[in-house]
Design brief:
Structural class of chain B: alpha+beta
Order of helices and strands of chain A: HHHHHHHHHE
Order of helices and strands of chain B: HHHHHHEEEEEEEEEEEEEEEEHEHEHEEH
Low-confidence stretches of chain B: 81-101, 103-115, 240-251, 258-262
Shape of chain B: globular
Largest sheet of chain B: 13 strands, mixed
Structural class of chain A: mainly alpha
Number of strands of chain B: 20
Strand content of chain B: 25-35%
Mean pLDDT of chain B: 74
Strand content of chain A: under 5%
CATH topology of the largest domain in chain B: Jelly Rolls
CATH class of the largest domain in chain B: Mainly Beta
Oligomer: heterodimer
Distance between the termini of chain A: 67 Å
Shape of chain A: globular
Helix content of chain A: 55-70%
Radius of gyration of chain A: 22 Å
Chain lengths: 188, 350
């Protein structure tokens, strides 16, 4: 049915637009001191409002500027609804996140590719903990509250992940005798 | 400021990460002060900073992909409304309807966490923690599935479990919490307990840690069994172990508290521990399969003769097998996700 396939197409256009603009919108929210889940929520609301308003993107000169200011309005409204005032830094609309600007040397590029590969090979829980800590910038307490993992488990997953990505040195191989002493273990 | 941070401390330090990846003023201030105290650390700090920024750069596109695909799901769940929005010249009535729906969405979305899906699944090797709409906490063990009743949010607290889960049920006397498994139903009022009901296991087990639960066997719907704390009920192939010919007899036993570290073997997995309590190699292998997401073949001559009691915390599969091997001898090979355990070759052991 043409109607539903058109809807899917326009959805996909919005998903692509969302994907393109998400990184610096997220960063804008973070720099203004909002919590990651609130930021994500407000980005969603910004784009849902565009869909609802039938924005004709061909009429908009600088989509990025338009999207960024709509999002900042959402941030300000949210802050006001909570009785707080935030100063939204406005350095972010003209450039992408720092990372996108850096032109990496070939060696650094290779390292980055290796790091990405190692990350994708990690167990899902390791990946989640690393993403929450290094992308969303959550503390261990916040990660525990969001995932229900124990602090011990967060620590273990984090160090396992960082070791696999070779950002931390792996433990020296232990002799079986030492390993045994670490375990509560008895022979039946 | 007296402490010099190691590289490991730096790259896992929350403020350090904030300084490297955001424009957080407090973090910037803190690390500027640190560097002015310890100017000799500049190169060291710079290296750690590059590492964290590089990690952040790796995560950025992946996080955006993930957020975009969540947004796609959100749009798809809103499809009936978007049809109106996109393809009809909106009549006044429809416009109001859409506004109301969108308003309801905003309200729902700003006042509550997104609704949990009705089915939650964990893969082999993966465990999940979740909080249900009624406040009940569930730890889902590996390779398990939890299905919520469609009206769960409206107060019908019934779920169906395949596999193993640990429950901390939110107290609500008005709405009993019921867990259905293939062979038994468990009815609870505010309590913590563990249920193991994997489809391909021969036994179904419920262990109670605190509170009270009432168990109804599918085969005897008229009878109820009430468990007291630290008791468990085990069913073999859907029936109670029949060492007593009286069919009304109930096999209720104490949960296995491992004296050394006060760890209850039945629920050890919720603390990221894998525990065996006088279990045969066949049972151990079965638990390892689920824990590590592998397939294990055990030589039948030793499968039921070897018994193990042990606790593992964060060992890898080879480390675990190696330790089990030291207790009672066997050989093993690992090819990808396939593991073979065979009897120790006498010639090789000499």
């Amino acid at each position: 049915m043409p109607r539903s396939s058109n809807t899917t197409d326009s959805n996909e256009q919005y998903v692509a637009l969302y994907r393109q603009h998400y990184p610096y919108l997220f960063k804008t929210g973070q720099n203004a001191g909002f919590a990651p889940d609130i930021i994500k929520d407000l980005i969603n609301q910004t784009f849902l409002a565009f869909i609802e308003k039938h924005i004709d993107w061909s009429q908009i000169d600088q989509p990025k500027f338009y999207i960024a200011s709509s999002f900042k309005n959402k941030l300000t409204d949210y802050a006001r609804s909570k009785g707080k005032t935030y100063t939204i830094p406005d350095t972010e609309t003209t450039d992408d996140s720092i990372e996108e600007k850096i032109i990496l040397t070939e060696e650094a590029e290779q390292l980055k590719a290796q790091m990405q590969q190692a990350y994708l090979a990690l167990p899902p829980r390791c990946r989640l903990v690393i993403r929450l800590k290094y992308y969303e910038g959550l503390t261990h307490d916040q990660i525990a509250a969001q995932t229900g993992l124990s602090h011990r488990s967060i620590y273990n997953n984090l160090s396992e992940g960082l070791k696999a990505m070779r950002l931390l040195l792996a433990d020296k191989p232990q002799r079986p005798g030492q390993l045994l002493s670490l375990l509560a273990l008895c022979i039946v | 400021m007296t402490k010099i941070y190691t590289y490991e401390e730096l790259i896992t330090h929350d403020t350090f990460i904030a300084w490297c990846t955001t424009q957080n003023a407090d973090a910037a201030q803190y690390w500027a002060t640190y560097l002015s105290h310890f100017p000799g650390e500049t190169a060291h700090v710079e290296k750690a900073r590059q590492t964290v920024q590089q990690l952040h750069a790796v995560l950025t596109p992946l996080a955006a992909d993930e957020a975009a695909s969540e947004f796609r799901q959100l749009l798809e769940s809103q499809q009936p409304n978007t049809l109106h929005i996109w393809y009809k010249r909106i009549a006044v009535a429809a416009a109001i309807a859409v506004t109301v729906t969108a308003g309801a969405w905003y309200w729902q979305h700003t006042t509550q966490k997104p609704a949990l899906p009705e089915v939650v699944q964990s893969l082999p090797g993966e465990r999940k923690s979740l909080v249900l709409a009624d406040g009940t906490k569930v730890n889902l063990n590996v390779n398990s599935q939890l299905q919520l009743h469609p009206q769960f949010k409206q107060g019908v607290r019934e779920i169906t479990l395949q596999g193993e889960a640990f429950f901390d049920v939110h107290q609500d006397a008005q709405h009993p919490f019921i867990i259905h498994t293939t062979h038994m139903d468990v009815k609870v009022l505010g309590t913590t307990f563990n249920i193991m009901a994997y489809q391909n296991d021969t036994k179904t087990e419920t262990s109670l840690i605190s509170g009270a639960v009432e168990i109804t066997l599918k085969s005897k719907p008229g009878n109820h069994i009430v468990l007291k704390p630290n008791e468990k009920i085990t069913l073999e192939n859907g029936v109670l172990p029949a060492n007593n010919s009286n069919s009304m007899a109930i096999q209720v036993s104490k949960t296995s508290l491992q004296s050394k570290n006060q760890l209850i073997a039945e629920t050890a997995w919720t603390n990221d521990k894998l525990a065996f309590n006088d279990e045969t190699l066949a049972e151990v292998a079965h638990k390892l399969e689920r824990w590590y997401g592998v397939q294990i073949q055990v030589d039948s001559t030793i499968a039921d003769n070897y018994h193990y009691t042990a606790v593992f915390e964060k060992e890898t599969l080879p480390q675990t097998l190696h330790i089990l091997q030291l207790i009672l001898p066997f050989q093993y090979t690992i090819h990808g996700t396939e593991v073979k355990i065979s009897k120790q070759n006498i010639n090789q052991s000499n």
